[in-house]
Amino acid sequence: MKQRPAIIGVTGGSGSGKTSVTNAIYEHFKGHSILVLEQDYYYKDQSDLPFEERLKTNYDHPLAFDNDLLIEHIEKLLKYEAIEKPVYDYTIHTRSENTIHVEPKDVIILEGILVLEDERLRDLMDIKLYVDTDADLRIIRRMVRDIEDRGRTIQSVIDQYVNVVRPMHNQFIEPTKRYADVIIPEGGQNHVAIDLVVTKIQTILEQKSIL
Ligand SMILES: Nc1ncnc2c1ncn2[C@@H]1O[C@H](COP(=O)(O)OP(=O)(O)O)[C@@H](O)[C@H]1O
Ligand SMILES: O=c1ccn([C@@H]2O[C@H](COP(=O)(O)O)[C@@H](O)[C@H]2O)c(=O)[nH]1
User: Fold this and answer.
1) pTM metric for this prediction
2) Which end of the chain is more exposed for a tag (fewer CB within 10 A), N or C?
């Protein structure tokens, strides 16, 4: 009998390559029933705050996320019910008014900086991955990405990294490595690690009579 969907957790610091690893796994199973849930889309709604106030929010702290809503949505997907996924706009630091209708699938990839920090989320996962990339590469990647895609200046990326991202990474993200089943150095270009993970996911899906 087909069991509940499988949940793959993918975490790591900002700029570590979580999205690249997620995309590589997604590409492998593309013909199958698979979806991606980004924890970033579940940042708390801040539309009631003025833009200047939103700039002061600590986006690397566990309390920045609406994990209650995220868990509510995962529980629906586990029952094969559809959800309305929120959409987050990094340029204005809040949710947009739109949502994305997401149909349930057999495999859910849950990706985000703090998905292993919440025990409730960990307990839902069939496999937990930590993408481990050195801090110098992460800041370089983040610098390029935040300027090109998220409307930031060099100085704002540096200030946010030094004052918030780095200390929060050390306090909250790095310690979750201990919960990972697999640690992937360097992220999406690590084809050996991706192949091993894909093989393991296939086994889990066969055990669940999904594949
Ligand atoms: N192995 C790599 N080599 C070079 N650039 C990379 C590599 N992996 C990711 N990137 C780039 O770094 C940036 C951050 O990667 P991403 O996968 O989005 O990380 P995360 O989701 O962990 O923040 C992206 O612009 C991506 O294209
Ligand atoms: O409004 C926001 C929301 C988030 N951030 C930063 O984003 C990263 C997480 O995204 P990754 O794709 O994992 O890099 C987090 O470190 C926050 O600092 C933001 O700047 N503004």
Assistant:
1) 0.96
2) N
